[in-house]
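Please decode residue identities from the backbone states below.
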């Protein structure tokens, strides 16, 4: 762009020199065309404006270049895969155990026991459903000739569910015990692995990453605006050069 502006000015200067030479050689009475300075004023005004634009663009480029350099050595390093992996907080096992046994193993065991109780409950529900589907108490009631025998019949039929009721009670009791154990193991795990500290460190890391991304987008936007400016400016200076050459 600057080369085209310079070429345009050289072309106008050459024309002005030629105009002055002709004016001196033939005299003002014979060389009657208006002075070159007057005819080319519009083009020279454009050249002056373009030089100012280029100077401003140069200052902006230098500022952006310095910011990109600083960011590349600083905040943007956070976005490199290796840096991201190294800076991401991780849960770490305690160096010194403050309780008996493996905290993580105990927590996993409690979760596994709770899952087993859930599977057992599903089996109980399936058994109860199967008993219900085989139940045909209405036919037995209709077949009983003595209405006084209905009470005993109901008691016998309900007794079929005694094992299921006992299994449900045992399942609920086991679930209460395991849930209590799970809460204790979870609290122990939270303290031993400093989960609250890990969450705080993760929040700081996320905020730093967001800041780095925002900085990157800002710089990328500045580069994009500069590219758009120079593309349009190149077209404008090319047209200016064509106008001066045609003139």
């Amino acid at each position: 762009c600057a080369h085209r502006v310079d070429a345009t000015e050289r072309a106008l200067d050459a024309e002005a020199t030629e105009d002055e030479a002709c004016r001196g050689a033939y005299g003002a009475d014979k060389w009657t065309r208006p002075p070159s300075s007057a005819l080319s004023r519009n083009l020279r005004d454009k050249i002056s404006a373009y030089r100012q634009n280029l100077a401003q663009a140069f200052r902006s480029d230098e500022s952006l270049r310095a910011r990109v350099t600083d960011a590349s050595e600083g905040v943007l390093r956070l976005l490199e895969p290796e840096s991201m992996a190294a800076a991401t907080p991780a849960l770490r096992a305690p160096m010194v155990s403050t309780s008996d046994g493996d905290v993580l193993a105990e927590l996993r065991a409690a979760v596994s026991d709770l899952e087993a109780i859930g599977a057992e409950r599903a089996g109980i529900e399936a058994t109860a459903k199967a008993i219900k589907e085989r139940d045909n108490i209405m036919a037995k009631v209709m077949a009983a000739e003595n209405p006084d025998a209905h009470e005993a019949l109901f008691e016998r039929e309900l007794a079929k569910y005694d094992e299921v009721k006992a299994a449900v009670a045992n399942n609920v009791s086991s679930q209460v015990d395991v849930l209590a154990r799970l809460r204790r193991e979870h609290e122990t795990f939270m303290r031993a692995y400093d989960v609250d500290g890990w969450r705080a460190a993760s929040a700081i890391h996320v905020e730093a990453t967001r800041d780095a991304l925002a900085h990157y987008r800002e710089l990328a936007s500045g580069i994009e605006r500069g590219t758009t400016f120079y593309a349009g400016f190149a077209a404008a200076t090319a047209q200016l050069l064509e106008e001066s050459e045609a003139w």
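Observation: Residues 60 and 226 are 9 Å apart (CA to CA).
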